[in-house]
Amino acid sequence: MLCLFQISPVTLPGSPELSGILRMIGVAFPGAKDQEQWEIEQEEAKSKDHRKIGKAQELFFFHEVSPGSAFFLPKGAHIYNTLTDFIKQEFYVSLMFKQHPRSWRELPLRLADFGALHRNEYSRALGGLTRMRRFCQDDAHIFCAPEQLEQEILGCLDFIRSVYQVFGFSFQCLLSTRPSSFLGDSVLWDLAEEQHLESSLKSFGEQWKLNPKDGAFYGPKVLHILKEAGFIADIDDDVGSTLNKKIRNAQLAQYNYMFVVGDKERERKTVNVRTRCGKQLGQKSLEEALNRLREIRETRSRDVDFDKEQALH
């Protein structure tokens, strides 16, 4: 048995400084030939590193003036814009409407967006174009009638296949069923899972697997309500970040209040309120918290106590 080890420093969540702790990663091989093959594959991977290719072909570069943001050179910008145009052309039926009352005659309504997002990643976590502070995340939603659903799902699957085939990518389909905690009528869930999703996958003709209880939970968003009430609000839903890191980032950004929502809060329709100074005010119903924020806004007072009982009821 042959082994190779790699040692690297560790940064603890919520702190940009080195902790003094070292991380050791080991790889074991049954024999010398296996190690040799692995080393060849590693060298091939290095030669295909997009950061080296980007520099050698003058596609993009990074600079400390804006760490984690790619600066595209003319050749790289041409490739980026060509890819964006290609995706938009494939979404030729997508319509971007201004918000106004809708009619059933407009269904199916397909909306697509290419939005620039920012994430406060630590410099040691950055990795070329795969881990950045500024990146583009495309998003799409389809609003349709129940009888249109299966055809729309098939259209999405065909779209994915047509794009992936151009680049020689492969993909795997998983049918994620509803989680233990879900909203809505179970009958409608059964109808969506069995008669629409499963039926569409069978018609699609590609291999797929069942992924029980891994469906995403989409409930009323504790963010849209705040914005509709006229408050400036953001959400940190990065699944790769710890709660302490999220709270620390919010404190550094000087948010006046933080509403922490976990499984318990979601079930009880409450929020766990914290101040930017780190004071924990406990669980409040969203309605109570909103009423308190409205009072603070209307009185324009810096000395109002958020936790004052008479203001919460």
Automatic annotation (TrEMBL):
Entry's Gene Ontology BP terms: threonyl-tRNA aminoacylation
InterPro entries: aa-tRNA-synt_IIb, aa-tRNA-synth_II, aa-tRNA-synth_II/BPL/LPL, Anticodon-bd, Anticodon-bd_dom_sf, Thr-tRNA-ligase_IIa, ThrRS_anticodon
GO cellular component, one term: mitochondrion
Enzyme class: ligase
Keywords: Aminoacyl-tRNA synthetase, ATP-binding, Ligase, Nucleotide-binding, Protein biosynthesis
Pfam families found in the cross-reference section: HGTP_anticodon (PF03129), tRNA-synt_2b (PF00587)
EC number: 6.1.1.3
PANTHER family the record matches: THREONINE--TRNA LIGASE, THREONINE-TRNA LIGASE
Name of the protein in its database record: threonine--tRNA ligase
Organism: Danionella cerebrum
